[in-house]
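RECORD TYPE: inverse folding
INPUT: structure tokens
STRUCTURE:
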């Protein structure tokens, strides 16, 4: 039985217990959210190394990291390095979007070593196996989907909402169909003159997913690829179909989340999130960005993190990161780090703004360490401890500066916090400050606590050549 089926019958599974522990909530609350389709626990029964997590608007905002190779770049070892960079820097899930060589080996290696859910887009493999797009068959698609499910993939993006009748609605766009899966299926329908095979075979896919407890990530194949195309008829026509497919999957006991855009002006983001929640009956919304401007190639991790924060505040449950290489090239491990930093900031900022219990205690603890000039504690509490320490040590590397009451920005004379502390220590009219926040003792979800390094590599010979740097300290250290 799937997590959804067990939740409906009133069973709190081991995965739900673990999720409740990580989110600091009652296990039956997790069960009820899953039973109602408002949250998903992507947990393929064949993924032995998985540490279960939950995606839903009533839980801490999650972040996905896309990895994967292409015909131009990337191999198994490079993808393994990216996987572990993603987990090390705080990804809640990873998607293997490989389209190059050794697809099976890359996928199997990722599942074998990943403690977080792994997602895929099975139509990519179908394209690689067929001689051309028009030669893809329904049987081939089902064969690929079942194989990937048996390999332990936890969730799959299935672009079943792109229908033949939607394609004319993309006429007049500036950037056409920018989803890889969406463009492949559009080409297939144009050349074969029949309906989307993923839509036609959707119930057969549901049966496979139910067997392995794979979660649907219903793809937005007609998402806008620029601001000008946001909120058009094509995007919203597909969304209506995704609502229909959500209910069909639920009827088969299969968990569902729904993917969203894309490129959206900032003033439209909250309305689009609210529309998805209404059309898809509250199924978790998983958004790419959205990018709030189109003018910043090389900095799209920033343009999209702005939109991601707004989307999460409006109710998006998981954010798909964008790296600095978006639109330009295949990300490497350092790009994964940059993208995750931007998106973990976005997710945490939204959780703080939404009043998520315990979320701001992390901020308060770091602020108190900063005011106390406790540099080591600042580094430990930083979202990226290695980066914080490195930047500090570029100008003041000596151990004596770890006890200094200033940094190189203001120097000794103009450090505002030192001046303020000295004034308070002079027993004047200024009173004591509020201190004593412990990020380790509050009830926030794990993603709203200082980073802890959620994977271990000691003794694993397959990771001998993967340099992950030091592990993050525990919040209790």
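DESIGNED SEQUENCE:
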């Amino acid at each position: 039985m799937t997590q959804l089926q067990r939740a409906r019958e009133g069973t709190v599974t081991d995965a739900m217990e673990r999720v409740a522990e990580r989110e600091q909530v009652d296990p039956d609350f997790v069960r009820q959210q899953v039973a109602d389709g408002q949250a998903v626990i992507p947990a393929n029964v064949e993924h032995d190394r998985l540490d279960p997590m939950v995606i839903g608007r009533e839980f801490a905002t999650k972040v996905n990291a896309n990895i994967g190779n292409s015909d131009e770049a990337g191999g198994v070892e490079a993808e393994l390095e990216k996987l572990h960079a993603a987990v090390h820097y705080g990804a809640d899930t990873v998607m293997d979007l490989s389209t190059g060589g050794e697809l099976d080996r890359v996928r199997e290696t990722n599942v074998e070593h990943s403690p977080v859910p792994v997602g895929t887009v099975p139509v990519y493999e179908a394209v690689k196996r067929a001689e051309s797009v028009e030669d893809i068959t329904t049987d081939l698609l089902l064969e690929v989907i079942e194989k990937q499910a048996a390999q332990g993939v936890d969730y799959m993006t299935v672009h079943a909402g792109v229908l033949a009748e939607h394609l004319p609605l993309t006429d007049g766009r500036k950037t056409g169909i920018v989803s890889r899966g969406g463009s492949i299926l559009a080409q297939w329908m144009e050349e074969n003159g029949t309906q989307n095979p993923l839509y036609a075979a959707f119930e057969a896919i549901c049966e496979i997913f139910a067997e392995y407890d794979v979660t649907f990530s219903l793809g937005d194949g007609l998402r806008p690829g620029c601001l000008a195309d946001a909120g058009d008829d094509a995007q919203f026509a597909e969304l209506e179909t995704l609502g229909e497919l959500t209910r069909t999957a639920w009827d088969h006991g299969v968990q569902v989340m729904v993917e969203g855009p894309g490129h959206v002006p900032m003033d439209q983001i909250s309305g689009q999130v609210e529309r998805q929640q209404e059309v898809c009956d509250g199924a978790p919304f998983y958004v790419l960005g959205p990018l709030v401007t189109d003018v910043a190639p090389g900095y799209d991790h920033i343009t999209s993190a702005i939109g991601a924060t707004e989307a999460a505040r409006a109710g998006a449950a998981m954010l798909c990161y964008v790296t600095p290489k978006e639109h330009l090239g295949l990300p490497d491990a350092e790009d994964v780090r940059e993208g995750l930093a931007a998106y973990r900031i976005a997710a945490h900022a939204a959780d703080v703004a939404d009043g998520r219990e315990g979320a701001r205690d992390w901020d308060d603890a770091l602020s108190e360490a900063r005011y106390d000039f406790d540099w080591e504690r600042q580094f430990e509490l930083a979202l990226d401890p290695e980066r914080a320490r490195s930047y500090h040590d570029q100008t003041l590397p000596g151990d004596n500066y770890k006890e200094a009451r200033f940094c190189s920005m203001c120097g000794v004379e103009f450090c505002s916090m030192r001046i303020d502390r000295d004034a308070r220590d002079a027993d004047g009219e200024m009173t004591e400050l509020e201190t004593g926040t412990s990020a380790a003792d509050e009830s926030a979800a794990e993603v709203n606590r200082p980073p802890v390094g959620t994977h271990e590599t000691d003794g694993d010979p397959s990771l001998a050549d993967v340099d992950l740097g030091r592990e993050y300290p525990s919040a209790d250290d």
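NOTES: Confidence is low (pLDDT under 50) at residues 453-477.
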